Amino acid sequence: MSTNALISVVYHSGYGHTAVVANKVQEGLASVEGVEARLFSVDDVDWDVLNASDAIVFGAPTYMGGPSAGFKAFADATAKPWFGDAWKDKLAAGFTNSGSNAGDKQVTLQYLATLAAQQGMLWIPLAVKSANGLNRNGYYLGLGTQSDNDSPEVTPGDADKTDAFNFGVRIAQATKRWKAGA
Ligand SMILES: Cc1cc2nc3c(=O)[nH]c(=O)nc-3n(C[C@H](O)[C@H](O)[C@H](O)COP(=O)(O)O)c2cc1C
After folding, report:
1. How far is residue 73's CA from residue 162's CA, in Å, rounded to a whole number?
2. Which residues are paired to 133 by β-bridges?
3. Residue 155 Cα to ligand 1 middle (Å)
4. Which CATH number do you get for residue 96?
5. Overall number of domains in the chain
6. Nearest to 107 by CA among 47, 159, 67
7. Paired sense of beta strands 122-123 and 91-98, if any
8. pLDDT tens digits, residue range 11-38?
9. Is pLDDT of 98 > 80?
10. Angstrom distance (rounded) from CA 126 to CA 114
11. Span 105-130, pLDDT tens digits
């Protein structure tokens, strides 16, 4: 099988819940033929792989109404690729997880989309109607999942994991189309 698209997921997770979502997005990406999907915690980023990626998916928990400081430190470090236009015209997407069903997740998604715009990237929204258990929190800009104050093995639950897998598939398919037309 020839690999025709490289996609990276970069996420921060203080307590493991956003990591569950990141893993499911990566599984969805990797399920699409011809896609190599890489997963990086912000503590363990391979910048060469990010620079070589056709698409980058950003993931941050919502802390105090915005992206976590751990993710923001990564975002600030992307000033280096910004200076060289290294991520211009890559695709981008984003997800956040938080404790409330809303909990101001929209602010985090807007931040992730703004980061992508600063880099000159093209943003892929979720494109899933909030119905039949899917997109249960009703976010459209990106994926907004929810977990209770318990173990990441318990929540986020199956519906959110399904959304995360499906979002990975969508991002992978969009990236293949974008790359084929480039
Ligand atoms: C410092 C801090 C701030 C938080 N702020 C919010 C918030 O603004 N909205 C919300 O819904 N949940 C908030 N939470 C709950 C987290 O979003 C929730 O526990 C999430 O699952 C944490 O993800 P993680 O395990 O990947 O770190 C906060 C948690 C922490 C530790």
Report:
1. 29
2. none
3. 13
4. 3.40.50.360
5. 1
6. 67
7. parallel
8. 999 999 999 999 999 999 999 999 999 9
9. yes
10. 16
11. 999 999 999 999 999 999 999 999 99
Residue 103 domain boundaries: 5-181
Mean pLDDT of the residues in the chain: 97
Length of the chain: 182
Collapse the DSSP code of 60 into the 3-class scheme (helix H, G, I; strand E, B; otherwise coil) and give the result: strand
Question: What pLDDT band is residue 180 in, cutting at 50, 70 and 90?
Answer: very high
Q: Which atom of ligand 1 is nearest to the CA of 65?
A: 8
User: Can you give the pTM of this predicted structure?
Assistant: 0.98
Q: Which amino acid is at 122?
A: L
Give the list of residues 6+ apart from residue 109 with CB closer than 8 angstroms, or none.
94, 95, 96, 139, 141, 142, 144
Could you tell which of 11, 20, 63, 146 is best to mutate to test the pocket of ligand 1, judged by most ligand atoms within 8 Å of the CB? 63
CA 176 to CA 182: how far, in whole Å?
A: 10
